[in-house]
Amino acid sequence: MRTVTHREVLGLLEAGAHIVETLPLHEYRTVHIRGARNLPLKSLWRQAPAMLTPGRPVVVYCRDSL
Amino acid sequence: MSARAAAQLELKGFTEVYQYPRGKADWIVRGLPSEPAAPLAERLRALPYFVHNLAPAIRRRWIELSHRRGVAQSMLDDLPRLRHGDPLPGSFKAGAPPFAVVLDGAGVLLGAIETIRPGLAEEAAMNPAPQTIRPDMTDALARTLLRHAPYLLITEADGRYLGRYKEGLFLEVGQVLQPVVSSG
User: How far apart are CA B47 and CA B29, in angstroms?
Assistant: First the structure.
């Protein structure tokens, strides 16, 4: 796992990476990074294999580093 | 939280996982593309988090200078630490959940064991999203969060597990000392 900056995220999105927001649905609905899918941490463990393409890069984010 | 998500994805077999720790606060304050376009109120709400992302020392120093009690003073490291894939013990010492924490090879928290039944698999027994807080959070804020969560686990920003938050731990120590002080 590698940490990335906003610039690197833009590059990864250009290259076709998945982007996943792990916050609850109501926070995702308020605003999310364009193109992001919502996989709250509670369901990510069980649902990620079905929702994300194996072998494709994945960027995960939440609200902040706190 | 993103560190824990990234660790979970790696264990699920995703080989190219990136974590964007500064997250949505960083993204929307910078005015990068979002859906829907971030309203001004949301951007203003994100601003303190954005500042903390860039300079976490400012917040830590503020906590120090204002003599606020921190979560680190109310931390217990008493839960069994299981490695992902380890067989679950048949019983645990603790009387109420969480009974144990599950960590990956780097010590990143993957979840907390909340259910004990003979033969139950780790995935069924584990809550993969327990509420976590950072060690430099103020004790007052942790107590507020505890009203909405059954327990709080303490991790570093990179997801490494440190212990669990024990409300009133500091006060309990004070209560033990009090009779000694008053007897003198």
Answer: 7
Quick one: CA torsion of A36, A39, A40, A43, rounded to 10 degrees? Answer: 180
Pairing of the two strands B81-83 and B17-20: unpaired
**DSSP track, B86-147:** PPPPS--S-SSS--EEEE-TT-BEEEEE----TT--HHHHEES---EE-TTSBHHHHHHHHT
Beta strand A58-61 with A18-21 is parallel
When CB atoms are compared, the residue of B19, B42, B49 closest to A60 is B19
| Angle in degrees, CA B100, B1, B99, rounded to 5 | 10
Given an 8 Å threshold on Cβ–Cβ distance, is A41 in contact with B19? Answer: no
Domains (range + CATH), chain A: 6-61 (3.40.250.10)
Domain B71-167 has CATH 2.40.30.160: no
Find the helix or strand (DSSP H, E) in which A35 lies: none
- Are A60 and B5 inside 8 Å of each other by CB? yes
Q: Which of B12, B24, B42, B153 to mutate to test the interface with A (most CBs of A within 10 A)?
A: B24
Distance (Å, whole) CA B184 – CA B182: 5
Q: Which residues of B touch A65 (CB under 8 A)?
A: 21-23, 52-53, 56, 157
pTM of the model: 0.81
pLDDT in tens, B23-63: 999 999 999 999 998 888 888 888 888 887 777 777 777 77
Cα B161 versus chain centre, distance: 8
